[in-house]
Description:
- The structure is a single chain.
- By secondary structure, this protein is an alpha/beta fold.
- The protein has two domains: 32-60 and 170-362, Rossmann fold (3-Layer(aba) Sandwich); 66-166, 3-Layer(aba) Sandwich (Rossmann fold), CATH 3.40.50.1100.
- The chain is built from 13 helices and ten strands.
- Helix 2 packs across helix 6 and helix 6 packs parallel to helix 8.
- The radius of gyration is 21 Å and the shape is globular.
- Pyridoxal-5'-phosphate (PLP) binds next to helix 8.
Amino acid sequence: MPTAANAAVFADHDVQRDWCRDALARLQQEAARSADTHLLKVDLPAFPGIGFYFKDESSHPTGSLKHRLARSLFLYALCNGRLQAGQPVVDASSGSTAISEAWFARLLGLPFTAVMPACTAPRKIRDVEALGGVCDLVDNPADVHARAAWHAARGACHLDQFGLAERATDWRGNNNIAESILQQMGREPDPEPAWIVCGAGTGGTSATIGRYLRYRGLHTRLCVADPAGSGFVNGWRMRDRNALATQPTLIEGIGRPRVEPGFVFEVVDEVVEVADTASIAAAWLLEDLLGRRYGGSSGTNFVACLQLAEAMRARGERGSIVSLLCDRGERYEQTLFDRDWLRAQGVDPAAAFERLAGRLALG
Length: 363
Ligand SMILES: *Cc1c(COP(=O)(O)O)cnc(C)c1O
């Protein structure tokens, strides 16, 4: 015979299971309503025989590749029994993840707090607030993890993008980003890319792509493009997980101050370091090539693509290179696309822009 107290616990348990089932159904409905993102093809006359493809992750409903991650993190928390009806949700984020998580929290009717550095682009802070989220701003970017843990200790569900990105995504398939790219490449002249290029924020995207390439037995190599002096760039050289950044970066979403727990060094084939001025110049150039604005990390990826393509051209190779357009450029109208703001940061990408345009023979 269950005691009265026990019965209350079990009844509560049933209510929670019902809520969890309903929440999962809502996430599945959202996935069914969403279309896959486009794979844009660009021919650059300076690189005959090399096809450039850009996976446009800005076209998700929340404007960045973090839409995939946020969906996965909520699914992971629900299926692990860590997320209950009415429970507040928290995460540390430089912005893009927070926007996507706020969107999914609203979908599930849960209060959401984003812990972010005070220097995050104002537009992103407004976007989180417009979705009903609360922004808890910290002065030192290195403090975001401790502050998120502080909220979790008071009962919030910590989605923990930096701790869980690498495992929350089903790397074997289930329409993850790697499966989607390779399926979309199916009818191209070189369907098995020579390279896939992505950045490293949580490390989740690179882990998923690297694992999937092995799982499918492909020859495609994985290149991570990251800002010069980042924690990951420094850690990669010595395979040292304790390495720290030696330089700050203006490129949001990547260039982490430390080697995040989700980085899987073993599945990365090459790391290309990119100066911020080159990343910003490349983001400007992408607008000329694609007719739309994308964020700084898309520029970082593009610089690495060019470097890899030049090496292929020098060796007389042909093939395809796939890269990611990680988020919408509108988020950076007051920063990377604002010359006054750039001047105030002591950054002038004009010369880098001319050099890049020259390498593309767009002159
Ligand atoms: C998160 C992010 C990345 C890096 O992706 P990860 O999967 O977290 O490594 C790149 N660009 C932008 C804009 C991001 O928000």
